[in-house]
Amino acid sequence: xxxxxxxxxxxxxxxxxxxxxxxxxxxxxxxxxxxxxxxxxxxxxxxxxxxxxxxxxxxxxxxxxxxxxxxxxxxxxxxxxxxxxxxxxxxxxxxxxxxxxxxxxxxxxxxxxxxx
Length: 116
Prior knowledge:
Layout (H helix, E strand, L loop, with lengths): L2 H27 L5 E6 L2 E7 L4 E5 L6 E6 L2 E5 L7 H4 L11 E3 L4 E5 L5
């Protein structure tokens, strides 16, 4: 091989490696789930994606609650309020637009919509 051919192959390899790296970064930053917001006293205190399984603790007026995210859905657990209505609401998933409301804690968990 001539020097010119080797240089061209090296340039092609570097460009291919850069494109692969860019594609991996874009894929890592993309989400297939929906964005969910947790409001405390009408201010967003936590945002998360429904496609990332996790448990989040949110402090509230009655010692707070936990929001568990699993398999694209979310629900309230370990709430520290007297009536436990928010935990009884069960699992909420994308497109249901049903807010989970815990009045004793002043916390609302709701799917974010376009334009917000």
